[in-house]
Write a structure and sequence with these properties.
single chain, 590 residues, alpha+beta, Immunoglobulin-like, 5-stranded mixed beta sheet, 4-stranded antiparallel beta sheet, 29% strand
Length: 590
């Protein structure tokens, strides 16, 4: 215990190497819970640049069976994991937790196109900043035992004025229903209102620290001047854009705008208009000083100030609160560490898990379409006057065992002349894989710094000797010019994933694990994403296979599907077993 205390003193003093030495001794002593110390030692190792050793210590300690060790690891995960991931962690046996934790962090690297280990390094970098800038200073009674909580001076003035305007003490004895409702809404969403958009049980960091660990430094940070302190954080590099609003709260263990709120629309216009450049909903036309509302005793004028000349209605307040709550939910339950490029490219990529017919092996097949007008091109002398688009591609795949496979290639596309907007460069990448579930991404870069990361949906690569299963669903188009060439012939692809209204789609998939001579029923359900509870088109067919494996190829008419985005679900049932896979397609007007 003394060694642990000394290690923490060294940490506070900034002697991270010394702290790591003391934590390592505590870990080796066996006197204290070694797995609890593992989380502390890992943090020190990352802070001092020993990232590989830090990862080994963190993963090894995850197999802990002690109560203190399990609690320490769960606290570490709570800073960044999603609710479903925490449930999965709780359900994982201690012996399997090192592998689970490895998959957890490696999956984030693959998802965003980073080298292995990058996300964990970034996580601990964010941890250090959050502990430095957003730590709470609380009395022994704790955060949630504080009885007093109040807004700033200007908010208090608003409260007094609102009461006067909606009571018999005003110059008019009644207020309009709309004004009453708006004022009531503003009171309920303020710091003194009965509702809080976000609450946390931890008593270490304020709300800003929680967001910082999950999303890092905002691209734009605006702090108010005058009155109570408020802040707006905007993450422009994340899509869809993430905007968060904070305001000051007294007696919360922190100074400054430390509390997440869904909106600052209840703040006087002269203060919230300072954020107009970063969040449009906070723009104000009437920026009059609230003190001027008392002059002249003009209740109508005061009401106009409160509602920004009638712009802030009950509907506007409801909408902005709902949008703000959704942003808070996203910021406190998900995370991101996106790559940033000089210029962005919007590629379209389809990823399939398939078996090579007659080849006895499985592959991941990526079909891509690159918008030519977003790419840099050259006309080198060696190209003989042709236009060349050079693109580096890195296909990353993470398997069920936590192992990562990277395929790095440089593709040169030569065409007679520069391509126009609406024209694409298409092709495929094929990687041999063992059967199993995989998640992947495709990183595209060019020499001038432009690029993109296409995060791909998970795929299942079936085993020919396994139970009943389907391969990925391939929806191709004969005229796409893109094929998967196999020993049994060419399979039409469609990297764009778009099909014309009243057109046709070439359906292809593989089936394994069937019982020969057994009748199987296949159902194709097309469901529009905007109405997930309604089946727009359903097709059924039956077959009795003579072999345990089969390739299925069908032409599917799309005449009964209106333009929109659809999920196709293919369900195969027979012999008391069932298997299903899905694919996404877009139907466009002719």
């Amino acid at each position: 215990a003394a060694m642990l205390g000394a290690a923490k003193v060294e940490r506070v003093a900034g002697s991270r190497d010394s702290a790591a030495v003391l934590f390592r001794r505590a870990l080796q002593s066996g006197v204290v819970d070694s797995d609890f110390v593992s989380t502390e030692l890992a943090r020190e190792l990352y802070a001092s640049g020993h990232t590989e050793e830090g990862a080994r210590v963190l993963l090894a300690g995850a197999a802990t069976t002690s109560d203190q060790g399990r609690a320490a690891y769960r606290r570490e995960l709570e800073w960044v994991a999603e609710p479903a991931e925490l449930q999965a962690w709780d359900a994982t046996a201690p012996t399997d937790r090192p592998g689970w934790l490895r998959q957890f962090w490696a999956g984030r690297d693959v998802r965003e196109g980073w080298p292995d280990g990058t996300r964990l390094v970034e996580h601990y970098r964010r941890i250090e900043t959050a502990w430095k800038d957003f730590t709470l200073a609380l009395p022994p009674s704790g955060r949630h035992q504080l009885a007093s909580r109040t807004g700033g001076v200007d908010t208090f003035v608003d409260e007094l004025l609102a009461r006067a305007l909606t009571s018999a003490e005003g110059l008019e004895t009644t207020a309009t229903d709309d004004t009453d409702l708006v004022l009531a809404q503003m009171r309920s969403i303020g710091l003194n209102g009965p509702f809080r958009a976000f609450r946390t049980a931890q008593e270490v960091l304020d709300d800003r620290g929680i967001v910082w660990i999950r999303y890092g430094e905002p691209d734009k940070l605006v702090t108010s001047v005058g009155g109570e302190q408020m802040q707006v954080w905007a993450y422009e590099r994340i899509q869809p854009r993430l905007v968060l609003q904070f305001r000051e709260e007294n007696f919360d263990g922190q100074a400054g705008a430390s509390v997440l709120v869904p909106t600052l629309i209840d703040v006087p216009g002269r203060f919230r208009d300072q954020f107009c450049g970063v969040e449009q909903s906070l723009c104000a036309i009437n920026t009059e000083d609230p003190a001027n509302r008392y002059q002249g005793h003009n209740r109508r004028q005061a009401r106009q100030v409160l509602t920004d000349g009638g712009r802030v209605t009950a509907a506007v307040v409801s909408r902005t609160v709902a949008e703000g709550q959704a942003q808070i939910e996203r910021a406190t339950t998900t995370d991101a560490n996106p790559r940033v490029f000089e210029k962005s490219v919007q590629p379209i990529v389809q990823l399939y898990g398939l078996m090579v017919p007659g080849g006895g092996r499985s592959v991941a097949l990526a079909a891509f379409a690159l918008p030519a007008d977003q790419l840099e091109w050259t006309q080198p002398p060696a190209a003989g006057g042709r236009t060349v688009y050079s693109v580096r591609m890195l296909l990353s795949l993470l398997g069920p065992d936590g192992r990562r496979l990277d395929v790095d290639t440089l593709r040169h596309f030569a065409v007679p002349r520069p391509l126009d907007k609406g024209q694409y460069l298409s092709g495929t990448l094929e990687v041999p894989l063992a059967p199993g579930r995989y998640q992947g991404s495709l990183l595209l870069t060019q020499a001038d710094g432009r690029g993109a990361v296409a995060t791909l949906p998970g795929i299942g690569v079936p085993s020919p000797t396994g139970r009943l299963a389907l391969s990925s669903i391939v929806l191709g188009r004969e005229s796409s010019g893109s094929l998967w060439r196999t020993p049994s012939g060419g399979i039409p692809l469609n990297p764009l994933g778009a099909f014309t209204e009243k057109g046709e789609a070439e359906l292809y998939y593989q089936v394994v694990g069937m019982a020969p001579g057994t009748r199987y029923t296949t159902v194709l359900d097309f469901v529009e994403l905007s109405t997930p509870d309604e089946v727009a088109l359903s097709l059924t067919f039956e077959d009795t296979p003579g072999q345990p494996t089969a390739e299925v190829q069908r032409t599917v008419g799309l005449a009964n599907l209106k333009p929109g985005r659809y999920r196709l679900r293919v369900t195969l049932t027979g012999g008391g077993m069932s298997a299903a896979e899905t694919a996404i397609l877009t139907v466009v007007k002719r």
